[in-house]
Amino acid sequence: MANATSATIDPREAEHFGRLAADWWNPRGSSAMLHRLNPPRLAYLRAAIDGHWHGDRSGFAPLAGKRALDVGCGAGLLAEPLARLGAAVTGVDAAPENIGAARAHAAASGLKIEYRAGGIEAIAGARFDLVTSMEVLEHVADPAAFVRGLAGAVAEGGLLVLSTPNRTPLSRIALITLGEGSGAIPRGTHDWNRFVTPEETEALLADAGMRVTDLRGLSFSPSRGFTLGKDTSLDYLVTAVPA
């Protein structure tokens, strides 16, 4: 697996996000858009977790006793909520600067999270009940190898959840022309040609031995912010299980 996934890291992408590490936890800083994305994607994740393991929807620790892996974890914006949901969490990121910021923030928050710098190969064949990778697929050098790595990390009976922007005229305008043009998103964050359509993502997952069980769109409006729905033209979330 290491040979298949070691080429997934794009050094330029890792360098770009590494420069943002110190500001990652500032909700009004360079990662402000990720902070706004987090509530709906956490809501989606919680619903996927409860549906998959038939847990108590009102419980505070639906991941108790389970292992979770967040690939492309940044400075821990998703890894920390997963830990609070009861999981033993491992976070992996290609930028060592992000891992340093993630470790420091987790320690200050009293959370025990294992963080590793590197690509998907950094998990060295380990298996997890839940594997997540949010807004990462569009930044890797080899999407097919990356998805195979994610799939290979899912334990029997486990769950994979990922999100990524769709390659549409709307995403180009919203994320690059307006988002990066206005400074709401750091310039150079996105390459529209590397965005992946839902059909392409489903095909990658199928080739990796995964079956898609849910696909949900992420839309944005100035009044409501990011919301979950049927419209996948901007961004979308996918849930998959081993086929």
Descriptive labels:
8 strands, single chain, 8 helices, 243 residues, alpha/beta, disordered N terminus, Rossmann fold, 8-stranded mixed sheet
pLDDT averaged residue by residue: 92
Structural class, from secondary structure content?
A: alpha/beta
Distance between the termini: 19 Å
Work out the radius of gyration.
16 Å
In total, how many domains does the architecture comprise?
A: 1
Your description of this structure?
- The chain has a single domain (2-163, 199-242), classed as Rossmann fold (3-Layer(aba) Sandwich).
- Helices cover 36% and strands 24% of the residues.
- It has helices spanning 2-5, 11-18, 32-53, 79-84, 96-108, 143-152, 169-182, 198-207; strands at residues 67-71, 88-93, 114-117, 128-134, 154-165, 210-221, 225-229, 235-242.
- The chain has an 8-stranded mixed beta sheet.
- Strand 6 (210-221) and strand 7 form a beta hairpin.
- The longest helix has 22 residues, at 32-53.
- The chain is globular and about 45 Å long.
Which secondary structure elements does this structure contain, and how are they paired or packed?
Layout: H1 2-5, H2 11-18, H3 32-53, E1 67-71, H4 79-84, E2 88-93, H5 96-108, E3 114-117, E4 128-134, H6 143-152, E5 154-165, H7 169-182, H8 198-207, E6 210-221, E7 225-229, E8 235-242
Parallel strand pairs: 1-2, 1-4, 2-3, 4-5
Antiparallel strand pairs: 5-8, 6-7, 6-8
